[in-house]
Amino acid sequence: MPVNHDAVDRDTVTEVLAGVRAEGRSALTAPEGKRIADAYGIATPGEALATSADEAVAHAGSFDGPVVLKIVSPDILHKTDAGGVIVGVESAEQVRAAYDRIVANAREYDAGARITGVQVQQMLPPGQEVIVGAVTDPTFGKVVAFGLGGVLVEVLKDVTFRLAPVTEDEAASMLDSIGAAEILRGVRGAPAVDRAALAEQIRRVSQLVTDFPEIAEVDLNPVIATPEGALAADIRVLLAESVPAPRRTHTREEILSSMTRLMQPRSVAVIGASSEAGKIGNSVMRNLIDGGFAGDIHPVNPKADEIEGRKAYASVLDVPGEVDVAVFAIPAKFVPAALEEVGARNIPNAVLIPSGFAETGEHELQDRIVAIAEERGIRLLGPNIYGYYSPWQDLCATFCTPYDVKGPVALTSQSGGIGMAILGFARTTKTGVSAIVGLGNKSDIDEDDLLTYFGEDPHTKCVAMHLEDLKDGRAFVEAARATVPKKPIVVLKAGRTSAGAKAAGSHTGALAGDDAVYDDILRQAGVIRAPGLNEMLEYARALPVLPTPQGENVVIITGAGGSGVLLSDACVDNGLSLMDIPADLDEAFMRYIPPFGAAGNPIDITGGEPPSTYEATIRLGLEDPRVHALILGYWHTIVTPPMVFAELTARVVAEARAKGIHKPVVASLAGDTEVEAASAHLFAHGVVAYPYTTEQPVAALGAKYRWARAAGLLPAKG
Amino acid sequence: MPVNHDAVDRDTVTEVLAGVRAEGRSALTAPEGKRIADAYGIATPGEALATSADEAVAHAGSFDGPVVLKIVSPDILHKTDAGGVIVGVESAEQVRAAYDRIVANAREYDAGARITGVQVQQMLPPGQEVIVGAVTDPTFGKVVAFGLGGVLVEVLKDVTFRLAPVTEDEAASMLDSIGAAEILRGVRGAPAVDRAALAEQIRRVSQLVTDFPEIAEVDLNPVIATPEGALAADIRVLLAESVPAPRRTHTREEILSSMTRLMQPRSVAVIGASSEAGKIGNSVMRNLIDGGFAGDIHPVNPKADEIEGRKAYASVLDVPGEVDVAVFAIPAKFVPAALEEVGARNIPNAVLIPSGFAETGEHELQDRIVAIAEERGIRLLGPNIYGYYSPWQDLCATFCTPYDVKGPVALTSQSGGIGMAILGFARTTKTGVSAIVGLGNKSDIDEDDLLTYFGEDPHTKCVAMHLEDLKDGRAFVEAARATVPKKPIVVLKAGRTSAGAKAAGSHTGALAGDDAVYDDILRQAGVIRAPGLNEMLEYARALPVLPTPQGENVVIITGAGGSGVLLSDACVDNGLSLMDIPADLDEAFMRYIPPFGAAGNPIDITGGEPPSTYEATIRLGLEDPRVHALILGYWHTIVTPPMVFAELTARVVAEARAKGIHKPVVASLAGDTEVEAASAHLFAHGVVAYPYTTEQPVAALGAKYRWARAAGLLPAKG
Question: Where does the record place the ATP-grasp domain (chains A, B) (predicted)?
């Protein structure tokens, strides 16, 4: 059935919804649902009243497939008893005959009955049951859902979500995003369903809930999908109790302007600076000074003239010159007054280290500072944070220990504990960092603000964020979509399994466990989701080290057959494609390998080989343009000790890079403890290497690939 | 329908199968399948020929539900045209009428037709379609399969396997082992199916293939399961081309006897011992001597009188006294002759370090040594291995570097590379080891032999095995079942994703991807499967440290709310149950926590707390008998530095153990690099602790719980 893209009639929907509201209802009746479906071109079985056989023929002709005819009479309650229903009517001739028979039967049944006409209804064809729906997610707002229908799918929760509205392409992608996607393409000789018609049902539902935010939930359940079309057998619509007020937003320029002053300040005031060792106000001062911050550092403390060798001011109002950031190191109860002064002084950023706000139940106090900040145009970081680091500015605005290894990774955490883990991990792995930011209560500055900045920051090559919630899921997705084409974003979303029971008025609602929606929508935004804390940290460390792959052909070169098998497992787990090695390349590899070694992929060079075999095969893999990424499996032997392997690999990779060949190379080192130093050496030279694990290097490569695909740098996988 | 447990008629099956073979077929016809089903009491729709209305009534009365009646006449091909089929016949009266009508119709249709009678067939009721089947797995032999029926389940591969034959309980457990198990219990108000009848179908199929090994595959597809029973609508049986000869087996006593002499030898001969540094025969000698082996070490080398200060012998035949193990360090081609001498000398164990056998394509050479060993009664370890370690005997019979940290973990690897990773990991984590054994080509000694020994070895508290295949899956399962009640077994099964396409003649066969069968059957055997190399190593390290939990109540105590959320996620991921904390215990915890801290579970003691808060809450968790395991989330602060936390926790745990309280305690440490030393301190004092990860400590606890449940030490989880 051709789809009419213009068949949207908002006025009818407005009228229907107004009627429902007027009656104090939130659930629409079936006829109301049908009117809305018709208004938005959501295909439902056709039906129309005929008052003559000719009309009946015309109606039936406008529908696909057979029809059912039913008498319509206020005097005939039991239509079937009256011979008033005939099903499975196909040809025009049959329709005409059926019309006449029904009317005749009705007259015979009750000669006095008033006959309004005959309802001609399109019969639902047999087909694949699916569910299309929409719900209002607390984080992401209107989201549209798609899954196969029936009890089984409800049990297996095989359903996918997108932000509404969706484009045609996004809607089409949903058909492939469910576990049972194959069904829709036709299995065991069954024909494929009409994908375009199905996608169009999704698109129209997403449009409906976008145009009418007061619609809380929609269920088309089931939709019958056939090779010829997709018809919603039932439509259920629920209205929201209330529509939330839109969140305060900032333009991209506003965000970039204030975040730039936050992350690259020239002048910082420390409110509550102290000379007393052990006080937070002293730690912050010492870290700013010892960290080597080149800008101005102004201590503010009414009881001191000088702190840590700097002139102290009684109030921030007295601080001279333009100030970019005010760091708060005073008890919570004093924050509002000081914040007023920060506002009066036109300082754009307040970094609120103090705790004692929403996290301890002091919601009112937090609301107060948010109100002051909004009124005064101050952006708030925190409260309840350890502060933040901006290493390229030599800035440690925190009470924690300083960290000064400049590098490509920007990390944020909602929790202080995770922030400390970031610091320890970075220090022990010597991970170079462009920012570490505590977000704490997120009273104002949120991940989307920072993401907008990091996306533009030339020092930042990878962003990693620990978060427990998003205050504005759509703003985050928007910032992520703008950033992902430039650099990878790793997200550790905590609380992913705590969704628990969620009250829902529809099937779609019941399927939309918090994490299911998060997971689908973060993936759509191109974000790499880390399954745990350690993975977030390791991805953040590894991703900037790896060049972007130029294609999907991954080759494993291993000295240990056993590692080769485990590395292959890990490739499958991480969505990587082992290259089907062409015959000429296979032969080329075999020239370097003992005759009992295995070419193919993994390439098993066997255990006892000298450094030259590793070197020759790695070089071959790097230089053949058909190979896009290498996974190395090293086996500790006396013939090729760990550091010899590490050095030769680093050298071969460097030589290739000098020739303009930039391919991601990862390595798994199996051996005695010397493999630890060898792995560190490799990591420092651009090869992501780990000892005692086959999974971790491949997971890092997999994360890089996921990003490259999301960034549109690789053709979509078939 | 009551199930007749005795309705097994082997003779009929034998007769049917003989007939099929006689005709050179491997697939049974539908009537042949039906005969076999009847012979084994596999419920199919009832059918019987009636030659009178009375008989028809009697037949129909013996079946559940409505029947269909069909004319049986050699002269009537188109039964329906002849009015010879009536469906949905229910009461006796209806059956009688239908019988008479069919016969009358037939006579009317063709007065001369010979009428054999009327077939009375039970109608298949509407119900849940499931599939029950059996296949012959190359590793495990006959396995029985169960899954929901229909195309959707085939796409989603929601199916479970067990070794055949299954008991009633095992069969019943299969109904709960599929993802869509809920369906069978009835969802959305649908009634539950007759579980006993369904389990009985599974049990009978498993009995059939066990009794007749020549049956390669059975498909009951679909079986219609209803609240009243389970009927196989179709039965498909395929015969095997050939039945493999049973593998050579050893009794448990034989295995224990030879493995004890292997792992606790008093005298070792080194065939190919050498004085030349760098040679394998020298490394083995040096490692045996330097490792401090207290038994006899006899070098065998025709060209030397003395090696490393020991008298050398020209042949193993010359070595005096009883010898338990001959370690081979000679080229492959010399192995057969030397092995004959080992046999002549009645040495029970040959440790074959040399490569150059099956792994390099030299299958014939390997077959030769296996034949010699079988003839001579020698057990072979290898070939193609690094050797083995038995630290409690100070035995390093290997060319690798020595390892002497005695402890509770026995590790084996099929691959040398993985063996080296075991060594390096153990050394760097100071993991105490009872054995490290290379299995290599597994020409003879297999995981089941070692498992049988480790199960009895008092030093071994945990067994961890890397394997790529099992030569005899049933022997492994048997050894695992005997061991698991005593100690945990961790298995890293490599090659789990490489199943690839597998030719199969049945639906069950198509569903039985190698790994699906491995996974189900290893789980049934109570084995903890490690997803990757690092997990295998970490589980092996952690499991012996953790006491066995006495119940399912897990409590998280955390200083960082952020860690608490991630630890909760990890609990769900690892099948752990967060305790619903009783009000009095909640109050007790709250006495130690700031008012804005959160009781409940996780118990958030908040970030700024002194050591005394950690101490009091951990003690409370340990001492309350309703709590069974603790997960600690530490947050690095100045108030409670990492080592202070580690020491107080170790002390509190030790105090509890002194009082007889043994509960597993794991910890996640978030903080600066000092948390690394703190984690090591905790690990050394019986608390499984990791820095920078919330997932790993919980995964270790989860593994311990999985084992405790499999060992029957905890009530089964609801």
Answer: 34-244
Q: List CB contacts of B29: < 8 A, sequence separation 6 or more.
A: none
By C-alpha distance, which of A208, A244, A625, A253 is closest to A471? A244
Judge whether residue B489 has pLDDT over 80: yes
- Residue pair B718/A556 in contact (Cβ under 8 Å)? The answer is no
Q: Would you identify the CATH topology of the domain B251-385?
A: Rossmann fold (3.40.50)
Asked which of A59-63, A199-203, A434-438, B627-631 is least confident by mean pLDDT, the reply is A59-63
Q: In chain B, what is the greatest distance between 2 CA atoms, to the nearest angstrom?
A: 108
Residues in CB range of A121: below 8 A, 6 or more apart: A45, A46, A47, A67, A68, A69, A70
Mean pLDDT of A258-268: 97
Considering chain B, tell me which residue range(s) the CATH 3.30.1490.20 domain(s) occupy. 5-122
Contacts with A696 from chain B: Cβ below 8 Å = 534
What is Dmax (Cα atoms) for chain A? 108
Nearest C-alpha neighbor of A84 from the set A126, A63, A60, A113: A113
Asked whether the beta carbons of B632 and B670 are under 8 A apart, the reply is no
Which of A155, A184, A193, A492 should we substitute to test contact with B (largest number of B Cβ atoms within 10 Å)? A155
Closest residue in chain B to residue A360, using alpha carbons only: B596
Torsion sign, CA atoms A556, A560, A562, A563: negative
Q: pLDDT (tens digit, 9 = 90+) per residue, A344-362?
A: 999 999 999 999 999 888 9
Asked if A384 reaches chain B (Cβ–Cβ under 8 Å), the answer is: no
Task: Name the more confident of A589 and A600.
Answer: A589
**What is the pTM assigned to this prediction?**
0.91
CB–CB contact A561 B420 (8 Å):
no
CA distance B539 to B542: 5
- What is the rounded average pLDDT of the residues B350-367? 93
Mean pLDDT, residues A574-598 taken together = 90
The residue ranges of DSSP E strands in B476-543, in sequence order, are: 489-493, 528-529
Going by C-alpha positions, the residue among A576, A561, A686 that lies closest to residue A634 is: A561
CATH of B405-541, one of 3.40.50.80, 3.40.50.261, 1.10.1530.10, 3.40.1190.20: 3.40.50.261
> What does the pLDDT look like over A597-626, one tens digit per residue?
767 899 989 878 899 999 999 999 999 999
